[in-house]
Specification:
Number of helices: 11
Shape: elongated
Helix content: 55-70%
Strand content: under 5%
Largest sheet: 2 strands, antiparallel
Strand order of the largest sheet: 1-2
Radius of gyration: 22 Å
Number of strands: 2
Distance between the termini: 40 Å
């Protein structure tokens, strides 16, 4: 699925010739730019847009849940409070689902072979270092090797402190994926040296660090989505979480609908 990857060349540009930190603002515009360059988006991948979409959806989910919980507190009508309780429970299931989807894409973004044209062996083109061209390189690393050798507690121990870049979401996503891209050639050097054979500690360290980078980014994005949700508009007529939580309005009509 092209949502799970983006093929970057050795300089970190997409195969459509655009820098990762200068992509069009929307998925549709990126697809049009790729088509203008004679490229099919299904082969280029669009992981940055999947990450942005997943984050925005989580922020919206948090906003609706927060309004439901505030509605229980501020409403004077017991029927409305009962409805808010029921809706909040449904929203919690949506949050879990959408958080899982975002986690998958963030995890993909920490795996070097999801951000390179060399996604399953070095592939065609110049290969002066003689890197592997195996057809199962990708799956062998992220599947069998990780399953056999990586412990969750080791990943947790290498997570970095929370970081807010105080930058636009697209800039944060680009920085995250470009950091992963710097690990493409180290991955292939390590594979060539036998670092992913028989539980070699070099490979274990590499995979643990990559998973920790993904876990850290996911945690940061969840925190930032929660913070963002305070100002997100919900319902119709539209309300903000801040207004409802402050007790300035009963949100029932906007969420349930007046019709």
């Amino acid at each position: 699925d092209p949502a799970h990857f983006i093929n970057l060349d050795d300089d970190g540009a997409t195969e459509a010739g655009m820098a990762l930190d200068a992509l069009p603002p929307t998925h549709g515009e990126y697809e049009a730019a790729a088509a203008a360059a004679g490229r099919d988006l299904s082969h280029l991948g669009y992981l940055p847009y999947a990450l942005a979409d997943g984050w925005q959806q989580l922020a919206k989910d948090f906003a609706y849940w927060r309004v439901d919980r505030a509605g229980v507190r501020v409403s004077d009508d017991p029927r409305h409070r009962a409805w808010f309780e029921k809706d909040a429970a449904a929203r919690e299931q949506l949050i879990l689902r959408d958080l899982g989807v975002l986690a998958h894409y963030v995890g993909d973004g920490s795996q070097p072979l999801h951000v390179t044209v060399h996604y399953n062996g070095w592939g065609p083109g110049p290969n002066p270092a003689g890197y592997a061209n195996g057809r199962t390189t990708h799956a062998d690393f992220e599947g069998a090797f990780v399953r056999a050798n990586i412990a969750p507690e080791a990943v947790r121990g290498r997570m970095t402190p929370f970081h807010d870049c105080r930058c636009a979401l697209d800039r944060r996503i680009a920085a995250y994926l470009l950091a992963t891209h710097t690990q493409v050639e180290p991955f292939y050097r390590l594979e060539k040296a036998g670092g992913f054979l028989n539980g070699d500690q070099r490979g274990v360290d590499f995979a643990t660090d990559r998973l920790a980078a993904g876990a850290s980014e996911l945690r940061d994005l969840v925190v930032l989505a929660w913070r963002e949700s305070a100002g997100v508009g919900v319902g119709y007529p539209q309300l903000t979480v801040n207004d409802v939580e402050a007790g300035r309005v009963d949100p029932f009509d906007s969420l349930f609908g007046r019709d």
